[in-house]
Amino acid sequence: MKTLIATTNPAKLAEIKSFLSDLPLELVSLKDVGINQDVEETGKTFEENAIIKGKFFCKLSGLPTIADDGGIEIDALNGEPGVYSRRWAGEENTLTHDTDSDERLINYTLKRMQGIPSEKRGAQMRVVEALVLPTGEVFTGEGIIRGVISEKPSEQRYLGFPFRSLFFIPELNKFYNHDSLTKEENERYNHRKKALDKIKNIII
């Protein structure tokens, strides 16, 4: 069954494909089906935005569509940036996925966290995956992982996932970077995998 993964973020695309690789699906990207339109994310929650994107691209493609929305929520900043994670550093930092925009987000986050003690640097990564079917049915799954904002970023960068260079998991003593975690750790801790697992049985 051909299924569209509706994201322009290459890191998200690769991660979703890897976590669905055990399903009998032909996973295609927006580029694969010739879609270059975008949709405005007007929702106030991750779930609303994921559904907005899923419905838009499902209608365009006529395919079952998986779309997601997620970001980081920092305790000391009352949950910021939340749904504005990619746009947090200012309007000039649009929803592009390149090294410069990633670095702006990393540096801006460190600036906002200056002076906040280690015991108050808690945060969580949250994502909602939406599966939208051509019939109009919508299914969602949410995944969360807790950690802290490091005072210094990891030297590793993972294009498209800037906050993972700041998000540290104390119980693993590692940054939440795909390349730093073992396969077993990714299976257990990845918040996107947790969300996808909740809708896997519907996809097939």
Automatic annotation (TrEMBL):
Record bears the keyword Magnesium: no
Coiled-coil annotated spans: none
Keywords: Hydrolase
SUPFAM superfamilies (alphabetical): ITPase-like (SSF52972)
A single GO molecular function term of this UniProt record: nucleoside triphosphate diphosphatase activity
Any one GO biological process: nucleoside triphosphate catabolic process
Gene Ontology cellular component annotations, sorted alphabetically: cytosol
Alphabetized InterPro entries for the sequence: ITPase-like_fam (IPR029001), RdgB/HAM1 (IPR002637)
Family membership noted in the UniProt record: Belongs to the HAM1 NTPase family.
Protein name from the UniProt record: Non-canonical purine NTP pyrophosphatase
Organism: Candidatus Gottesmanbacteria bacterium GW2011_GWC2_39_8
